[in-house]
Specification:
alpha+beta, Alpha-D-Glucose-1,6-Bisphosphate, Chain A, domain 4, eight-stranded antiparallel β-sheet, 8 strands, 30% helix, elongated
Length: 169
């Protein structure tokens, strides 16, 4: 009796898994290594903040609170791009296909003066474009976990700007 129950549970799980995988309405996400959204730069606030602003050239800045010498904050407007990690799967003539989704994201960047430098934290808000069954756009939906590579990439950009303007030696 236990064997029959076990076989039934396994068969049910495989059926449910197979149905979810073939459904175009299930958003899938590629796994990334753990990427950070915070870094401490061994520079003073003015230099780091200048690098933050230069790194975001071309982005629409909604708010830039830079009056404070201890903590500063910057908010960007939405930027639309093709997702790097979120996609739908579907089949054409029995062959599996992937369709990466359109996403939009915005940043809230906070810089805080700390002992030894300036701490920069990037909070990313991301929404994915929903698709109808025929593949046409159906608005945007908030995601629970934003693509971690975007914040990590922006921190690397900030670091490069700092390094390229560093005149210490």
């Amino acid at each position: 009796m236990k064997k029959i129950r076990f076989v039934f549970c396994v068969a049910s799980s495989l059926f449910l898994f197979g149905t979810a995988c073939s459904s175009p309405q299930t958003v899938k996400s590629q796994a990334y290594a753990s990427l950070g959204s915070q870094r401490t730069f061994e520079m003073e606030m003015p230099e780091v903040w200048t690098a933050v602003e230069k790194s975001l050239e071309g982005s629409n800045i909604l708010e830039n609170k830079k009056e404070d010498s201890v903590q500063r904050q910057l908010k960007t407007d939405w930027t639309e791009e093709l997702s790097r990690d979120k996609y739908y799967t579907y089949k054409v003539n029995g062959l599996p296909k992937k369709k990466y989704l359109q996403v939009r994201f915005k940043y809230l960047i906070t810089a805080k003066k700390v002992m030894g430098g300036t701490d920069v934290k990037i909070d990313t808000t991301e929404e994915i474009q929903s698709l109808k069954k025929d593949g046409t756009p159906d608005g945007f939906t908030a995601v629970k976990k934003a693509d971690p590579s975007r914040a990590a990439e922006l921190l690397n950009k900030i670091d490069l700007v700092i390094l390229s303007s560093d005149r210490r030696g």
